[in-house]
Design brief:
Blueprint lengths: L13 E7 L5 H14 L7 H18 L6 E8 L2 E8 L25 H8 L2 E7 L2 E9 L6
Helix pairs in contact: 1-2, 2-3
Length: 147
């Protein structure tokens, strides 16, 4: 071999960006989009977990933001897993995503567990401001699919 050894760069990420209606109907659509995005990837993240956490992010965006501005789902397939983001028009960060409350959720309440699930089941999560509001995201590591 002549010359220096050339190292291949890591596989580029693939991403999808989809506008969803600001209604509860966005939740099953988002789940289906994530399932489809992860279906063909050899080292994809756990699809069931990705769907569950995506549903939580989308449901939170619909429930906790006002207006009819569409929310946006961004799915990035990374060489070592995936990252899912949900963009909405409210700049207020989700309170208990990165600063969890000290107490446990009330077992008699129907809600209050979504951000706990995201913190617990993802490899990392967070939020960031955007030009039009905020993006809330999580990452899941990849795993080899059985042959």
């Amino acid at each position: 071999m002549n010359g220096p050894v050339v190292h291949e760069p890591p596989a580029a990420s693939t991403s999808w960006r989809v506008a969803l209606p600001h209604t509860a109907a966005a939740v099953p659509v988002a789940r289906a989009l994530v399932r489809t995005a992860l279906a063909e990837r050899e080292h994809a993240a756990d699809c069931d977990t990705a769907e569950l956490l995506t549903a939580e992010l989308v449901a939170n965006a619909v429930e906790h933001t006002s207006g009819s501005t569409p929310i946006e789902l961004v799915v990035r397939l990374l060489p070592a897993g995936c990252q899912v983001e949900v963009h909405d028009a409210d700049p207020e960060p989700p309170g208990e995503l990165t600063r969890p409350s000290l107490g446990m959720p009330d077992p008699w309440q129907e809600n209050g567990r979504g951000l706990l699930l995201i913190r617990t089941l993802s490899s990392s999560c967070g939020h960031r401001p955007t030009d039009s509001g905020k993006a809330v995201w999580f990452r899941l590591p990849g795993q080899r699919r059985p042959v």
